[in-house]
Amino acid sequence: MFLRRNRRIRNGETYEYWSLMRTVRTAKGPRHELVANLGKAPGLDADSLHGWEQVSDLLEGRPARAIQGELGQPLPSLPRRAWTEVDLSSLRVERVRDFGQVYLALALWRRLGLHNLVREIIPPGREAVPWELIACILTVARFCGNQSELEVAERWYADSALEDLLGVPFAQIRHTRLYRGLDVLRAHKERLCARLLERYQSWFGVEFEFLLYDVTSTYFEGKAEANAKAARGYSRDQRSDCKQVNIGLVCTPEGLPIGYEVFAGNTADVRTVEDMVMMMEKKYGQAKRIWVMDRGMVSEDNLDFLRQRQARYIVGTPKQHLRRFEAQLLETGNWTEVQPGVEVKLAAHPDGLGSEQYVLCRSTDRRNKEAAMLEQQRQRLMAQLEKTHATLCKRPAKDPGAVERRIGRWLGRYPGAERLLEVRVQLDAGGRACGLVIEEKAERQGWAQLAHGAYLLRTNCTEEDPARLWHWYIHLTQAEECFSISKSDLNLRPVYHQTTARVEAHILVCFLTLALWRTLESKRSEDSQPQAARRASAARQMWMKSKGLGDCARQLIKEVSTVRSMDVVLAARPATETEPVELRLRVVSRPDRMVAELLAHLGLELPRSPKIVQNVVPLNAP
Question: 581-588 and 244-251 as β-strands: parallel, antiparallel, unpaired?
Answer without folding.
Answer: unpaired
